[in-house]
Every structure is written in structure tokens, then in C-alpha cells.
Amino acid sequence: MDPRTDWRERIVADPKVLVGKPVIKGTRISVELVLDLLGRGYTMEDVLRQYEHLRLEDLHACLAFAADVVAMERTIRRPA
């Protein structure tokens, strides 16, 4: 199953939870935290060991969410 197809089922944003930052559903673990850990060199296995209630699909959903957010960004080039 392609994890990109279901990130909306696993990632939510609620103004009452972490001031509306995207989090893994049912947790207070933000997408930002997961991406930060992975960016610092943690493996997915490291993250899953540290946060035992998460599943691999949650981490895939964080990556898919981030990819979609970046894909929506627009770049405006300045004239040379």
C-alpha cells in the first residue's frame, strides 16, 4: 500500500493540540518532531523505539505529508 494515499487518515491539525500544528492522530507528536528526528539521523527504527505507540505507517504518513506540503510550495524567481 502506498503510504502517500492515506496520510490524511493519520495526520491531523487541531487548534487545541500543539496550537494547530500537524500531529499524528491520537497523539501530541508533531510531524515537525518526526521530521526533525529523521533529519538529525535517527532511523525509523530509532523513532519507533523511542515512541513505542507509533507505527511505521505513522512515520510514512509524516514523510508523505511533508512531501505534499513541499510540492504545493511555489517558487518565484527574481529577474537576473
Explain how this protein is built.
With 80 residues, the chain is mainly α. It has one domain: Arc Repressor Mutant, subunit A (Orthogonal Bundle). 46% of the residues lie in helices and 5% in strands. The chain has helices spanning 7-10, 31-39, 44-50, 56-72, and strands spanning 11-12, 23-24. Strands 1-2 form a two-stranded antiparallel ribbon. The chain starts with 6 loop residues before the first helix and ends in an 8-residue tail after the last helix. The mean pLDDT is 91.
What key attributes describe this structure?
Arc Repressor Mutant, subunit A, globular, mainly alpha, 4 helices, 80 residues, 5% strand
Draw up the topology in text:
Elements: H1 7-10, E1 11-12, E2 23-24, H2 31-39, H3 44-50, H4 56-72
Antiparallel strand pairs: 1-2
Helix pairs in contact: 2-4
